[in-house]
Design brief:
Layout: H1 2-102, E1 110-111, E2 114-115
Antiparallel strand pairs: 1-2
């Protein structure tokens, strides 16, 4: 009977040892999982920070697009103004040519009674 009891006790002791070793393994696995979870949380925080930075960059890009669109409108206006001014200059040049033809330039023929060669 003692022998049976000893076998049972030693058997239970073996199970207990297995549980202790398994618990150690489980603790190791759990700590490894905890480290992985901490790394995942850090990566998610970094990703969230990157997302916030990306949103800020998108806002800056939209402002840049608006600025470029405004500059394009200003450029078109300046081109139209330059075209108008070029037309006006051409009109003035035509008027000058017409005025010269209508009224030829005066020539100095003599100075103090002496003829001047052209």
């Amino acid at each position: 009977m003692w022998r049976l009891f000893d076998t049972w006790i030693f058997g239970r002791l073996g199970e207990f040892r297995e549980r202790i070793f398994n618990d150690t393994e489980l603790t190791t696995i759990a700590s490894g999982n905890l480290e992985l979870l901490q790394d995942l949380v850090d990566a998610l925080r970094k990703r969230e920070g990157n997302r916030v930075e990306l949103e800020a960059l998108r806002a800056e890009l939209l402002e840049a697009y608006e600025s470029v669109a405004s500059l394009v409108v200003d450029l078109e206006f300046e081109r139209a103004r330059a075209s108008y001014l070029e037309e006006r200059v051409a009109e003035f040049e035509d008027d000058i040519v017409g005025a010269r033809r209508a009224h030829p330039a005066l020539r100095i023929v003599s100075v103090n009674g002496e003829p001047v060669k052209p």
